[in-house]
Amino acid sequence: MAEIVCGIDEAGRGPLAGPVTAAAVVLPHDFPTGILADSKTLSPARRESAARVIRDRATSWAVGWASSEEIDRLNIHHATLLAMRRAVEGLGVRPTRLLVDGLFVPEAGVPGRAVVRGDASVHEIMAASILAKTARDAWMVSYAEREPGYGFEKHKGYPTAEHRAAIARLGPCAIHRRSFHF
User: Fold this and answer.
1) Which residue of 24, 96, 143, 159 is surrounded by the most CB atoms within 10 Å?
2) What DSSP element (H or E) covers 19?
């Protein structure tokens, strides 16, 4: 049986608001890896372009989420692992091995290995990094229409001076993580 490697990465551990998002990606052997990089190093336009290619050409991909309420209840570490497990469970194929950016591997019934800075060195993790970031950013931009005034479409919930000023002015909204310090 051929090995099916799944890369996993997350976006949204550090923000004060919104979900944490994880992506799981299985790439075919002929994937154009030249478009891949750590999502944080790509411009928004290059990230979106790469995300379209990944969604079109990946063998399988899925995005998993953990809400701000789950983050507050479980803590950000366990909520991140939950989002990762949900992403793996959403795949259309059963991977034989997980490669996860960072220090921890989610319990997903599949053997895995954590790869520090894997988002800069492992193609499957790079692809997952791009999908997680673009999915979360799109969610935050969409949510900004429901809660105008916070600037979510700009800072995506991260603790910028503008975001902190909006919280001081408006108070926290439904997606603010109550367990985080504003």
Assistant:
1) 24
2) none
Q: Does position 24 have pLDDT exceeding 90, yes or no?
A: yes
Terminal-residue alpha carbon distance, the chain: 50
pLDDT tens digits along 90-115:
999 999 999 999 999 999 999 999 99
Across 72-101, average pLDDT: 98
Contacts of 75 (CB under 8 A, 6+ apart): 179
> Is residue 48 within 8 Å of residue 134, measured between CB atoms?
yes
> In the numeric block, which tokens belong to residue 44?
């928004």
pLDDT band at 58 (very low <50, low <70, confident <90, very high): very high
Closest among 152, 144, 120, 156 to 39, alpha carbons compared: 120
The conformation of residue 103, written as its DSSP 8-state character, comes to: S
Number of H helices, E strands in the chain: 6, 5
Q: Quick check: helix, strand or coil at residue 28?
A: coil
E-state strands within 12-107: 20-26, 60-66, 97-101
